[in-house]
Write a structure and sequence with these properties.
- The complex is a heterodimer of chains A (387) and B (319).
- Chain A has 387 residues and is mainly α.
- Chain A has helices at residues 2-13, 21-31, 33-56, 108-143, 151-168, 172-198, 204-208, 216-228, 232-242, 247-256, 260-274, 277-284, 289-297, 302-325, 337-344, 353-380, 382-385, and strands spanning 79-80, 96-97, 148-150, 212-215.
- Helices cover 68% and strands 3% of the residues of chain A.
- The relative contact order of chain A is 0.13.
- The longest helix of chain B has 39 residues, at 176-214.
- The chains are: A mainly alpha (387), B mainly alpha (319).
- Chains A and B meet through helix 5, helix 8, helix 9, helix 14 and helix 15 of A and helix 1, helix 5, helix 6, helix 11 and helix 12 of B.
């Protein structure tokens, strides 16, 4: 044993020290100045958003974003508070409106702090949902893609889908009928499986219903194609407008309409990883599929997902701002950068800071996410390094 | 070629069928009924509600509604719920307005991104390259509506021209030359805004493509032959870098409606995006669905054209 260790030490002696992937990526990332700025601004934004959450919530918040002071409306940044009109308890922090006030005399600084947290959560939750769906769909398409779906299972899926749709539209009778039909298909499948397990050839009529149709991969990737055909912003706008206004609906809808890119990346990575030796080795060792996927394949496929997630957060923040601008964003008690901006548009010439402050903040934050994401892509992708 | 065309057409029709189902379900299964849009209106009696539902087939089961909706769409009988006008007629009118923005925006995009992308690639790492790279990130990251307001303030304060809507109100009596100038001023800002995202993406893409090409062997050969730098870059390099962009002609079609919702609302431009926005506000389902369907058709036509162009431009590709 010790001899073996010595040998290994000798082998490593003349070689350069082993560098982990993270250290290597960090070394390249550090050289990219724009990406470093992106990371710094991202960190600052994160700290601001978290402190904004703590400072603006509670019964008596330090910064009250909802306090209306009608005598103090449309003040410019750094305007000090009028001590005669405003009670001590209603005054802003330090007695000045750091970023001015809006048309109801609310402190823009407090609203921006609250909005930072909202933007951050919208971005992260929406992207979290889309990455989750993307990994599951892409993983299934990449790992189990070659299996063909039997005709009977297609029938089952259609019947079950119809049952759900009829249920949602309130047509109970049709829903029960479709559900029964889908149950019938399940029973037939179980009988068929039982018969095939017995080793005997089942009745010919039964096996006729079980011919192979398309593959799992076709099913998922065609679905991706279908989703890509929708005009995304228009679709999001439609759904958000129809659903009751709520911050969670916006996150969910943005997440549900933006998973296609991640699915494609994950599928492509899985297709190439599946053929590699370490996966074959794991299979030979009898490690279960799920463990292979989660322990061995997903960590290796993480780089493109991470990059697209970072850029996805930027897109989600922009989309939320656009929705707020059109009046379908996060509903009023919450301040978001988007709705501060859209409230401010009526005072474009009288109070331009109501437009510039949130607008520039969105620009800087989204820009930092984009730069960080691109830097990440360059440092994680060995192919691009040589150029 | 023929077999590819037929196969692709069938595939796209199947895709379109599923799109029609999904977009129909998204709109019709949402909570809230379109008849509830004006519950406080005292003139809207329960009898009217029943008549409304009967008139627009809302009392029928879902799959019958689906069938009737698409039957009406294809036979041209589909009516808007708000004013009972044919949907296709309304869209046609708005389509022509959007087309202006789209054409001008596309021309601006293509005219700007190619020179910028190529120069950035040739002078890789120089100040020009780095500043255009940064600028394109800024353009991707800026909220369109915020930038629109900055541009409006700038143009209105500097040139003292009105920019909102398609033309200045009351201009119809003026001389032709004034009217044309007025139309152009109104066209400039919305089309620039529509083009911005495209410029940022396309110029980055041109740069990457050009970088790929100028490291090829035949470029070195061309230099070795003693050709001038311009000939090397534009005759040997650019032509080969151009191949992918021929195919992008097909992919820009859906931009007709895509990102124009916000721009058209800001500039009060009576185009398709704003029409969709108004339809969403009024819960005018036939118009929402038809716009969705048109975009889907445009996307499919676009990919089809770009696939065909691929084969025409690059004979090595066999699909």
């Amino acid at each position: 044993m010790t001899v073996n260790d010595q040998n290994i030490n000798e082998l490593h002696h003349g070689l350069a020290g082993e560098v982990s992937r993270f250290t290597e990526a960090w070394r390249i990332f550090k050289k990219n100045k724009l990406a470093m700025w992106g990371l710094i601004i991202f960190t600052v934004f994160f700290i601001v958003a978290v402190s904004g959450l703590f400072l603006t919530t509670g019964d008596d918040p330090v910064l009250d974003p909802a306090k209306v002071r009608l005598s103090e409306k449309l003040l410019r940044p750094f305007a000090s508070v009028d001590a005669e009109m405003i009670k001590p308890g209603d005054r802003p922090l330090f007695g000045t409106y750091l970023l001015g006030t809006d048309d109801l005399g609310r402190d823009i600084f407090a609203r921006m702090m609250q909005g930072a947290w909202v933007s951050l959560t919208v971005g992260f939750v929406a992207v979290g949902i889309s990455v989750l769906i993307g990994i599951v769909m892409g993983g299934i398409a990449g790992y189990y893609g070659m299996y063909r779906i039997k005709f009977m299972h297609v029938l089952f899926l259609i019947a079950f889908f119809c049952a759900l749709v009829f249920l949602a539209s309130g047509q109970r009778g049709l829903a029960v009928d479709s559900l029964l039909l889908s149950l019938l298909f399940v029973v037939i499948s179980m009988i068929y499986n039982y018969v095939s397990l017995e080793g005997t050839k089942g009745p010919v009529t039964l096996s006729l219903l079980f011919f192979d149709t398309f593959t799992v991969d076709t099913l998922i990737m065609r679905f991706v194609d279908i989703m890509l055909c929708f005009p995304s912003f228009f679709l999001i706008l439609t759904i958000v407008a129809i659903l009751p206004a709520s911050i969670y609906n916006i996150m969910i809808v943005i997440g549900l309409t933006s998973w296609m890119g991640t699915t494609r990346f994950v599928r492509a990575e899985f297709l190439s990883l599946r053929e590699q030796d370490f996966v074959s080795a794991a299979k030979v060792m009898g490690i279960p599929d799920l463990s292979i996927i989660f322990r061995h394949m997903i960590p290796n496929a993480a780089a493109p997902v991470l990059v697209s997630a970072t850029i996805g957060i930027a897109d989600a923040i922009l989309t939320e701002a656009g929705l707020s601008f059109l009046g379908f964003g996060v509903p009023p008690p919450h301040a978001t950068w988007g709705n501060i901006l859209s409230d401010g548009k009526r005072f474009l010439f009288d109070a331009p800071w109501l437009t510039y402050i949130p607008g520039l903040s969105i620009l800087v934050v989204v820009l930092s996410f984009n730069l960080f994401g691109e830097g990440l892509r360059d440092s994680l992708n060995p192919k691009l390094r040589k150029r | 070629m023929l077999s590819f065309t037929i196969r692709s057409l069938i595939q796209k029709l199947v895709t379109l069928f599923f799109i029609s189902i999904i977009s129909f379900l998204v709109v019709y299964l949402a909570p809230g009924k379109p008849s509830q849009i004006d519950p406080l209106n005292p003139k809207f009696t329960p009898e009217d509600l029943v008549r409304f539902q009967k008139e627009f087939n809302l009392d029928k089961p879902l799959h019958v509604q689906y069938y009737l909706y698409y039957k009406n769409l294809f036979t041209g009988h589909l009516k808007s719920w708000k004013d009972n006008q044919p949907v296709m007629g309304k869209i046609q009118e708005r389509f022509l307005n959007s087309l202006w923005l789209f054409v001008v925006g596309t021309v601006i995009t293509w005219c700007l991104s190619f020179p910028v992308g190529i120069s950035a690639a040739i002078r890789r790492g120089a100040l020009f390259d780095r500043s255009t790279t940064f600028l394109s990130y800024v353009l991707i990251s800026v909220p369109g509506f915020f930038f629109a307001y900055i541009l409006i303030i700038f143009v209105v304060n500097t040139f003292h021209v009105p920019v909102i809507a398609m033309q200045t109100f009351g201009m119809t009596q003026a001389d032709n030359i004034y009217r044309i100038m007025d139309r152009i001023w109104h066209l400039v800002l919305p089309s620039i805004l529509g083009a911005l995202g495209g410029i940022a993406l396309l110029s980055r893409y041109v740069r990457a493509q050009m970088l790929e090409v100028i490291h090829q062997d035949y470029i070195r050969t061309a230099r070795a032959k003693g050709l001038s730098e311009d000939v090397v870059y534009y005759k040997h390099g650019f032509r080969n870098a151009l191949l992918p962009f021929v195919t992008m002609f097909g992919l820009i079609l859906p931009g007709l409606i895509g990102g124009s919702v916000i721009t058209e609302s800001i500039f009060a431009w009576p185009g398709m995006g704003r029409m969709g926005y108004e339809a969403i506000l009024a819960r005018d389902y036939p118009i929402i669905l038809t716009l969705n369907f048109i975009v889907a058709v445009l996307v499919l036509i676009g990919t089809f054209i770009s696939d065909l162009l691929y084969m025409v431009v690059d004979p090595r590709i066999r699909l």
